[in-house]
């Protein structure tokens, strides 16, 4: 049996306002009642500070950071800035940023190194597109992303890996338990090969359209240590059942 504690993180993406922070109360209460599971919410930058005052024990995180401490980087936010706002975690290398902002593996790695050095829980995202999977290159693509995006080592913070099957997000396609088990097993093998025993302690989250009706099945898959949840994290009604499904039985 895995000793890794489940982690469920909601990524609000470019959604939410001050009024929506009312959802945090019921989510925090559900997390306390569930027990044995870590729960976080990553709202837009503008809501991090306000979310921190209403977190109720939830881990508040950011959706991105810059690799540099400061400088002429208009529109960017440093690790120190997001920490000062109250964030304890950060997502880097999300598939939408890799696609829309054309982020490269070296850029993701630099951000991860900065976030870990700053003591943050650092969630590094990897995942393949439909053409990669159709060509049978899905494991090779993800392995390459891991090689290029993960730091060689770290002394601060906590490294988490999130697997995003891009082809199964908002497309109507569904990743089967066999798909998830296969990829998470490959990721675990790559982590252990790179980091040794430490690689066996890194939590691997599944991030492919997790919802209340599939969460329990996904969490039962080997090497699935939680979830990175998108749209279903925007309301307590949808997110709480996912948190409950992650709780130890």
Write the layout of secondary structure elements.
Layout: E1 6-11, H1 24-34, E2 37-42, H2 48-52, E3 59-62, H3 79-85, E4 89-92, H4 95-100, H5 105-117, E5 121-126, H6 130-134, H7 138-149, E6 158-163, H8 177-195, E7 203-206, H9 215-219, E8 226-229, H10 236-246
Parallel strand pairs: 1-2, 1-8, 2-3, 3-4, 4-5, 5-6, 6-7
Summarize the structure.
The protein has 249 residues and is α/β, with parallel strands linked by helices. It has an eight-stranded parallel beta sheet with strand order 7-6-5-4-3-2-1-8. Helix 1 runs parallel beside helix 10.
Write structural notes for this entry:
The chain is α/β, with parallel strands linked by helices and 249 residues long. It is built from ten helices and eight strands. The chain has helices at 24-34, 48-52, 79-85, 95-100, 105-117, 130-134, 138-149, 177-195, 215-219, 236-246; strands at residues 6-11, 37-42, 59-62, 89-92, 121-126, 158-163, 203-206, 226-229. An eight-stranded parallel beta sheet has the order 7-6-5-4-3-2-1-8. β1 (6-11), α1 and β2 form a beta-alpha-beta unit. α1 runs parallel beside α10, α5 crosses α7 and α7 runs parallel beside α8. The radius of gyration is 17 Å and the shape is globular. The mean pLDDT is 95.
């Amino acid at each position: 049996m895995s000793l890794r504690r489940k982690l469920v993180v909601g990524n609000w993406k470019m959604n939410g306002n001050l009024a929506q922070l009312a959802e945090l109360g019921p989510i925090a209460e559900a997390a306390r009642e569930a027990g044995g599971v870590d729960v976080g919410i990553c709202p837009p930058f503008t809501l991090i500070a306000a979310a921190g005052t209403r977190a109720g024990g939830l881990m508040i995180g950011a959706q991105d950071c810059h690799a540099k401490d400061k400088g002429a980087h208009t529109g960017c936010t440093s690790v120190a800035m997001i920490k000062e706002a109250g964030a304890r975690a950060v997502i880097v290398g999300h598939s939408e940023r890799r696609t829309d902002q054309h982020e490269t593996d070296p850029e993701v790695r630099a951000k991860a190194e900065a976030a870990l050095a700053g003591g943050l829980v650092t969630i590094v995202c990897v995942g393949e597109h439909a053409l990669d999977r159709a060509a049978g290159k899905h494991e090779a693509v993800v392995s390459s992303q891991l090689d290029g995006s993960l730091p060689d080592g770290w002394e601060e913070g906590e490294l988490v890996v999130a697997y995003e099957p891009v082809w199964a997000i908002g497309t109507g396609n569904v990743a089967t338990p066999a798909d998830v088990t296969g990829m998470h097993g490959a990721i675990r093998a790559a982590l252990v090969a790179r980091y040794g025993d430490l690689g066996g302690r890194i939590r691997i989250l599944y991030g492919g359209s997790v919802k209340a009706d599939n969460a329990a099945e996904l969490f039962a898959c080997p090497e699935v240590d939680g979830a990175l949840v998108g749209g279903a994290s925007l309301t307590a009604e949808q997110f709480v059942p996912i948190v409950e499904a992650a709780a130890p039985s």
